């Protein structure tokens, strides 16, 4: 673990740059300020950095050590979840209700949310530009759960998920992981391992290993159309 270094302060519209994450401590707070423009957000994800902050605080930019990942091989699908996936109770779609998914992720968080109105606007802009995506889970014609994240080449950085029907977020994550790796995604980032994510197979890697993978895999191309095609027939794969 390296010692804390002086934070970089960014003004709105300042040049696109961040300190080297490998020179930061494990907490990984690199910079304060800047903006949530599409260019800065895309540069951040390409650099292994993400924004995370609360109401009344300027944007905070992070690259912690370690980082949390998921893979199709390590995805843990319990017997009960497998039955749920096969039952036909839920339907899953891709990029059909991004605005509804991110709004629900912001609304369904205990103890407040970091998905602030400016975050919703910024990631909706990324979606409109083809860089942010959602997986939706439907039950009886209503949105029951889902997740959203940012795609950069063969990297998918999952940002948040929600459910209003039991097991719907687990369905979203399992189908998302399976579909994205089938489409050619090589790195599925979930930022931090929580108890819930660990139960589904999330694991940690060192920040240098993560950053090396980001540098390599963001050079690849995984079109959204390929992801949509890979979703077809998802129920038969569980």
Percent in strands: 15-25%
Tell the overall outline: globular
**Total separate domains:** 2
- Tell me the radius of gyration: 17 Å
Identify the CATH architecture of the largest domain. Answer: 3-Layer(aba) Sandwich
Helix-strand makeup class: alpha+beta
- Give the strand order of the largest sheet, numbering strands 1, 2, ... along the chain: 6-7-8-9-10-5-11
List keywords for this structure.
238 residues, alpha+beta, Alpha-Beta Plaits, Aminopeptidase, 2 domains, 7-stranded mixed sheet, 4-stranded mixed sheet, 8 helices, 11 strands, 24% strand
In short:
Helix content is 34%, strand content 24%. With 238 residues, the protein is α+β, with helices and mostly antiparallel strands. It has 2 domains: 8-64, Leucyl/phenylalanyl-tRNA-protein transferase, N-terminal domain (Alpha-Beta Plaits, 2-Layer Sandwich), CATH 3.30.70.3550; 68-237, Aminopeptidase (3-Layer(aba) Sandwich).
Task: Lay out the secondary structure.
Blueprint (H helix, E strand, L loop, with lengths): L7 E3 L18 E5 L4 H9 L3 E2 L8 E3 L4 E4 L8 H9 L3 E4 L3 H10 L9 H12 L3 E8 L2 E11 L2 E9 L4 H16 L3 E5 L3 H5 L3 E3 L1 H11 L6 H8 L7
């Amino acid at each position: 673990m390296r010692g804390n270094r002086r934070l970089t302060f960014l003004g709105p519209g300042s040049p696109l740059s961040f300190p080297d994450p490998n020179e930061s401590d494990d907490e990984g707070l690199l910079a304060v300020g800047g903006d949530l423009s599409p260019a800065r957000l895309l540069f951040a994800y390409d650099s292994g950095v993400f924004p995370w902050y609360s109401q009344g605080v300027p944007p905070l930019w992070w690259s912690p050590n370690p980082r949390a990942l998921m893979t199709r091989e390590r995805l843990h699908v319990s017997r009960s979840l497998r039955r749920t996936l096969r039952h036909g109770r839920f339907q899953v779609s891709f990029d059909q209700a991004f605005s509804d998914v991110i709004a629900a992720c912001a609304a369904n968080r205990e103890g407040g949310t970091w998905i602030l109105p400016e975050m919703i606007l910024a990631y909706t802009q990324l979606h409109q530009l083809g860089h942010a995506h959602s997986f939706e889970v439907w039950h009886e014609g209503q949105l029951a759960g889902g997740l959203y994240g940012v795609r950069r080449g063969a990297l998918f950085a999952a940002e948040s998920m929600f459910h209003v029907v039991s097991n719907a977020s687990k369905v979203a994550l399992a189908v998302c992981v399976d579909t994205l790796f089938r489409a050619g995604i090589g790195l599925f980032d979930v930022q931090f391992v929580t108890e819930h994510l660990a139960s589904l197979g999330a694991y940690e890697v060192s920040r240098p290993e993560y950053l090396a993978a980001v540098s390599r895999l963001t050079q690849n191309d995984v079109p959204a159309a390929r992801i949509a095609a890979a979703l077809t027939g998802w129920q038969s794969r569980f």
